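Propose amino acids for all 103 sites.
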């Protein structure tokens, strides 16, 4: 997949490097979210997710760039999130100028 595809509720950016998950970007009420969706059951709720603060173009671009750059490997996460949906970890979104936060 060369460019993100529109899917119901967001964009399918790519498949993870191991081919087990899709890496999607979904608009939420107050932010955008990078999610992993199982390839074998794409109708299920996302397996993992990370939030990117804001609803403007900047937040969407940060989430898209992070999804494109990320391998989706287990034990890793996309860069630049401000809330980790698995751990509840939160990083203040103030000062975000790119995808520099996260490990």
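Proposal:
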């Amino acid at each position: 997949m060369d460019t993100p595809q529109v899917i119901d509720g967001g964009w399918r950016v790519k498949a993870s490097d191991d081919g087990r998950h899709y890496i999607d970007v979904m608009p939420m009420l107050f932010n955008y979210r990078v999610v992993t969706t199982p390839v074998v059951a794409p109708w299920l709720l996302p397996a993992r997710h990370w939030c990117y603060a804001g609803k403007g173009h900047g937040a969407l671009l940060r989430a898209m760039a992070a999804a494109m750059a990320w391998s989706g490997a287990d034990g890793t996460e996309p860069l630049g999130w401000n809330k980790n949906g698995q751990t509840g970890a939160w990083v203040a979104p103030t000062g975000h100028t790119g995808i520099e936060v996260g490990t």
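The radius of gyration is 12 Å. Confidence is low (pLDDT under 50) at residues 95-103.
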